UniProtKB/TrEMBL annotation:
Protein name: Glycosyltransferase family 2 protein
Organism this protein belongs to: Winogradskyella flava
Gene3D superfamilies for this protein: NAD(P)-binding Rossmann-like Domain, Spore Coat Polysaccharide Biosynthesis Protein SpsA, Chain A
Cross-referenced PANTHER family: GLYCOSYLTRANSFERASE, GLYCOSYLTRANSFERASE EPSH-RELATED
Keywords: Glycosyltransferase, Transferase
Domain Glycosyltransferase 2-like: 7-166
Amino acid sequence: MNPIKISVIVPIYRIEDYLPKCIESLLQQSFKDFELILVDDGSPDNCPKICDDYAKLDQRVKVIHKPNGGLLSARKAGLDAALGTHIAYVDGDDWVDHFYLDTLYKLAVANDADLAVTGHFREFDGKIETIKPNNPGFYNEERIKSEILPNAIYNGEFCEHGMSTYVWNKLFKKELLIKVLYDISNDVVMGEDAAITYSYLAISKQLVISKIPLYYYRQRHDSIVKSVEDPKTEYYRLGLLMNFLKTKLSPVLDKYNLDKQITYYLYSQILVRSGGLTYNQQKDSWFNPFLKTTKDSKVVVYSSGSFGQHILSTNLKTDYFKIIKWIDVDFHDLKIGENTVNPISSISNNEFDYLIIATINPSTHKSLKEELELMGIDSSKIVKIDTDITKIQNLIEDLGFDQNFIFTKKTN
């Protein structure tokens, strides 16, 4: 009888400062019947040695050294070697609660669930935020298809997921994961987790969602800043993801609902990666999604996360807005151009025309807007993102995506 119930797979690349804490948190689990598969994806730092050292200390640790092939290839390599009936994925720069595996496994077994989902903690610069799913409970196949999948990617509020994309707060059955993971092209390097989660959900018959937070997700500002590549390359990659989702979800969702979910998801990803402003070559003009704002508007940008950083980086190139200040409640040392992050208490109404909250999540937008209003900021100056579906569809078509969300304009 196979004693291994869970295979924990950790893809590893350039995270030597964080990896020991991750591994220690897993080896100290209250749940014992697991193996830990460390997948060194050709990491050029000290990670390979760290992996090997832990393997010498604990027989539960299995190490795979492979040439760099990206996150999906590492996840696949781990699955190839897995002996457990269930699979958990953990990112090597994060860490987990002492009862992470125990709770996930009991949730899965007690409900005979194909997928178990929990809450998580978000850690940033020493601050920890608890994030819990909005829809806890047990779902059979009928409810998955009628309640979960129609709102999984886009829940009716731009652009909030009904089911989180992350794979690390979930426990999968190996026999089902095998059916979807290998179908995902390794060229999908944007939204890899979404490709796994949503395609797996489409073949799940029983689902359990718990509010218990068990996973510590480390939000690293040094991991966010990435130079935006040639837009055509990025659109091609996004098209791979969106077309894959359409293919896998078409059997379980009606075309109208599926196309709407993917349209909003694609739009949100284009916005984040482009810093909001998107050059529309067909119309030889910039598409500005921030309602009320115009070129040369004096703007304050709230959020130093991925979207906020891309807004600052894009504006350096386009000089579209006059960015007066960059603020965040998660105040930390970060600079883009001449702008550094300031605390939210540093602004006053007479300094700016509009304030952009750099988030595509409506719940986050609402919460931050309320905090700003309590600080005396004029609510009429806090802008929203344009979510007119017709404008979005026209933009996506003009950029070069076809009806199946494939990017048809080839890269240079």
